[in-house]
């Protein structure tokens, strides 16, 4: 049994006692109440569920389609063409399949980077699908089909954000958007402010070669809206100054090494993240639409590298709130 505690304790032949869905005790030869249902896992490994800090669950409706695409092919298909055809029920299907796929791969907690919510109906459907799927989820609400300063101002969207934020079935709610244009007027500032008003963290693809780069970090830093616990996805093509800004404001980075190595975001910047002491976690990005093997390959326990704020909030023995 791998406890994944701070001492990296391994308990050969250990027991885990679960009472009412929560871990009550861990040890060897535990005394358990009469009638306890026993699962014999001898010969296997018992360990905490893995955490995926960035997963586009809706895309799993397409299963492994696009697994070998470059980022450009991905953008064209999902952002410009067929992504717009997804109906609310397609989101429900994608989220549920992705949830089962994650569990099957040992991932019990995911940040769902749900960035195709082009109508409030899509938003409600995606949210309810997460809340009723097995596993724990952070609902990162996004809409690539509208400007972030527009959809975050929509009263109907705010209703969904407030409902999911206050829903004990969810592990959290975040605002998901990118700063993709080099614009000194920084219109995305309104989206950062919406997050602040709602008391939500921001997760953003920052440092994706050719798509989001230093100017997004510069704009946000200069406006004073980079806050502790915000997540910067990939962070693969940033300057030293941008890493310093992420570190100085308490941000964390979500890596997807398999995706970064094959799609074109830039190579995983782990050496930079270690250099600047930025908490780092890993996830499967659009791999959620791929075969489960990718999740197994890409998503690892947080122990080998410092956990992000998302992962650090999650203790494997801590009950779901
Ligand atoms: Zn992504």
UniProtKB/TrEMBL annotation:
List the residue ranges of the region (Disordered).
274-321
Ranges for the Amidohydrolase-related domain?
45-257
SUPFAM superfamilies annotated for this entry? Composite domain of metallo-dependent hydrolases (SSF51338), Metallo-dependent hydrolases (SSF51556)
The UniProt regions of compositional bias labelled Low complexity, in chain numbering, are 279-293, 301-312
Question: Does the record's keyword annotation contain Hydrolase?
Answer: yes
The UniProt keywords, alphabetically, are: Hydrolase
Protein name in UniProt: Amidohydrolase-related domain-containing protein
Q: Which organism is it from?
A: Pseudolysinimonas kribbensis
